[in-house]
Amino acid sequence: MPRARAVKSFGRPRYIGLGIALGVAFGVAFGNVAVGIALGLALGVALSARKQSEDED
Q1: This prediction's pTM
Q2: CB under 8 Å, gap of 24 or more: what pairs does 35-43 form?
Q3: From the centroid of its chain, how far is CA 30?
Q4: How far apart are CA 48 and CA 50, in angstroms?
């Protein structure tokens, strides 16, 4: 029976969740939740990609 290959995960989901949470908080504070979620998601994905590239080096 062949060994199963390890599946590479997509970055770090905690950074995406943290980005969304911060985005919602800033969105509520500034009165525009949709923009806050979008910016938080972008920030979370950027941090996740950065952390993943650091782990590969």
Answers
A1: 0.69
A2: 41/16, 43/19
A3: 22
A4: 5
